[in-house]
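Review session, final week

We close the course with one last complete record, chosen because it touches almost every idea we covered. It is Triosephosphate isomerase, a protein from Pseudoflavonifractor intestinihominis with 257 residues. Go through it on your own first, then we will talk.
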Amino acid sequence: MNRRYRKTIIAGNWKMNKTLSETRAFAEEIKDMLGRPKWCEVVLCVPYVNIPAAVRLFKESRIAIGAENCHYESHGAYTGEVSAEMLKELGVKYVIIGHSERRQYYNETDFTVNKKVHAALEAGLHPIVCVGESLEQRELGVTMELIAYQVKAALAGVPADKMRHVVIAYEPIWAIGTGKTATAEQAAEVCESIRVVIRKLYGARVARAVTIQYGGSMNAKNAAELLAQPDIDGGLIGGASLKPADFTSIVNDANQE
């Protein structure tokens, strides 16, 4: 982490988990544990149906609410989809875009990721843009080239003055939900390379201000080591974000002075 230049952000991604009643129970439990973190921003990205309740439940805390996806159009005949404007009006601040599960199961492409980034920014949301490689791609030795392409594709057409609203999350696909985690050195190497790509696109000042998260099975046991890396500015947390004690532990690791 480097708080001198950029914000530390711990974001939970609940995926398709927790009913409304479970969301209420989670809120009551974690608010007592978490307090009001001073040195990092905390985000919970919850299923669409839980957003209004989550916004209300965490209104008096320092926990911002995010969504797990949005459509790239503002309105239209897109049955079952939700626009960035709809999310903004509900009180959402962040939105995850291009998560590997969206790419794998719902045919999300680099082209649609880019369109969603623009839609989110236009609506005044902070996109958390996910990039990452599969195990096969890592073993082929193309990780850095692939990540560079994904970053460039996602940010195509995004002006420099909008980059302060963008978060990049490096999520190695082979470490999501598998129990495997990139070593701190592996994660740091890729996050540093992402910053190099942004520097080439936008210059050093913009690059050093962009928050880059690690999103591959960060948990209560490995968070401190990962967050100690200079180019890892937080985490996009999956399973551990469903457990108040584990999520609080990660936030506490990120909240050190």
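Two points worth writing down before the exam:
The longest strand covers residues 126-131.
The chain has a mean pLDDT of 95.
Good luck, everyone.
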